[in-house]
Structures are given as structure tokens and as C-alpha cells.
Amino acid sequence: MTDLRSKLLVTRTLPQLSQARLDKGFEGVDIVQWKEDCAIPRQEFLKLAKGADGILCLLTDKIDAELLDAAGPQLKVVSTMSVGYDHVTVSELEARKIALGITSGVLTEATADTTALLVLSAARRLREGVDAVIQGKWGAWSPTWLLGSQLTDKTVGIVGLGRIGVAVAKRLKAFGVKKFVYQGTRPKKEVEKEVGGEIEFVDMDRLLKESDVICVCCALTDKTKNMFDYEAFSKMKDSVVFVNTARGGIVDQDGLIRALREGKLGSVGLDVTVPEPLPTDSELLTFPNCIVLPHIGSGTLETRTAMSEIAIENVLSGIKGERLPHPHDA
């Protein structure tokens, strides 16, 4: 008799409610899960993937030809618990007719919150202020100490005006921003309506030169990789607030370090780096005007639960041969 059971590989423990669903199990599905408190080691990933019909992975898990070969020809679906999929070799999946699911839409609000948080923190020199309190450098009140900048009457440039970019603009508008400029593919009338105020499409050079704040909200692609290099930073105002909550690879990190070293930037806020995690001896961490977070853009219980639920629905649909609720090409 033919065994009709399917194998599902899950590469990490999920948030509580979603993990409870996995622990309860699904009819006709054998679940193999990496539950250690670390990313699944590559060799373990290759071993556990063998015979899998579906894989639920994270952005830390590289899905390439080697992994797909290890899994075998029965693999029907890869479901990543992320909106970005630069860790997946899409062409390999397409050639093998393997579906790819992502968790689009649900992390917009949390990531936009984090972007606004970094803009305000970098602009108001939060890291230096906290360090001053902890290190006992907080003395008598001074009218010239730790002066940051505010957003009132400033120009904000947004690179990548998708869902997250629009949500960021809406948040920052409340702080008195005078004007938004953007790079992206969406029509001006459409984004003006969503943002609810003046926003202008401009070329990249103008965005770099005119913006008081620059927020990176675009996807990592061959076109955007290392888009922000030393030359780009050199075109910015030396008072600029530069924030990246998209992907670390969009920024040439050596160019960023050089620009910071030479005082070409006002302040920097990063939720993403290369590599991740960032080594503790990275020069980036030595600059008092650079705040680095550990890739927590979508890090709320509500959002991570929603992401894991979508990832589960995607992988179960794929195993059954059904259309994914949230395919990467939607």
C-alpha cells in the first residue's frame, strides 16, 4: 500500500499560538521541526530536508539548488516567514515547479513603527543620551548639550514607496514634515491620496541632495544591491538622518563606515546589517551617532504570529497542490 503521508520541515520554533497548531499536527502530515534556539545549521538543514514535500523556512535559511537537490523531486512548496525572499534562488524553484509563499502585508505596520522609531531616535541622539545617563555623564542642564534635530518643516526622502514606505510617510507626517520626496514605481496621484499630503517623485540624485531624512524601504534586488555606497552618502547633507529597515545588502557597509568616519552624515539608524548578527567588533558600533537594532522591524507578538499563520497556510496549501494564499508573485 502506498504511503500517502506528506513530510513538512519547519526550520524554527514559531510564536506560541502557531507553535500550538504545529504541536497538534495536521492530518496526513508528518512534521519535522528544528527547535533549537539558533538558526538551523546548514548540514542539518540539508539532512532534514530529504524527502520533504513542504518547507517552512525563515530569512536566515538559504534556499538554493543544493538544498533543493537534497530535498528531492517530491518537494512542492517553500514557504518563507518573511516578505523578502532574497535568501531564495527563485529561478531554481521556478525551474522545478516549486511554489514559493511569502508573508506579505502583515508586517507593514510593525516595520513602519520601527522605521519611525529609528528616525526619531537618530535625529534626537537617543543612543548618546542613554549612554550619558548610564555612564554618569549627565551633568547640569546646558542649552547646548546633546542638541538633535526635529522633523518640523523638513524634507523626508523615501526610497521604495510600497506598503511600508507609505505607512512610514503617514507616521512621519504627524511630526510636521514639510515635504516628502520618493523613489518608486507607483503613480504620484495614487501615493498622494494614500499619504494624504504633498509627495513628489524625484530622481535619486535630487532625493539624496535635498532630503533631511532618508528612509530605505525598498526590496533587495540586483538593482538595489549596494545602492547606498560612499558616492551616494557623499551627495547627502552632512546633517542627514539615514535609516535602513529594509535589507542590509542595499547599503555598501564599508562605504557607510567611511562616510561616518569622515563626518559626512548627521546620524544613522539601522535595523539591518551585513552580516547578521553584526559582530561586536564592527566599526559601525563605535560611532555614537549610529544606532543599530538586531533586525526587529517586524518584532511584535501580533505581527510575528500573523506571519507564522500565513506561512503555515501557504505551506499546507502547497503540500495539497492548491494555489498558495500568499504567493511571492501576487
Automatic annotation (TrEMBL):
Domain D-isomer specific 2-hydroxyacid dehydrogenase NAD-binding: 118-297
Any one GO MF annotation of this record: glyoxylate reductase (NADPH) activity
Domain of life of the native organism: Eukaryota
Name by which UniProt lists this protein: Glyoxylate reductase/hydroxypyruvate reductase
Taxonomic placement: Eukaryota, Fungi, Fungi incertae sedis, Mucoromycota, Mortierellomycotina
InterPro entries: D-isomer_2-hydroxyacid_DH, D-isomer_2_OHA_DH_cat_dom, D-isomer_DH_CS, D-isomer_DH_NAD-bd, NAD(P)-bd_dom_sf
Keywords: Oxidoreductase
Boundaries of every D-isomer specific 2-hydroxyacid dehydrogenase catalytic domain copy: 9-326
Similarity comment: family membership: Belongs to the D-isomer specific 2-hydroxyacid dehydrogenase family.
Entry GO terms, CC: cytosol
PANTHER family listed in its UniProt record: 2-HYDROXYACID DEHYDROGENASE-RELATED (PTHR10996), GLYOXYLATE REDUCTASE_HYDROXYPYRUVATE REDUCTASE (PTHR10996:SF277)
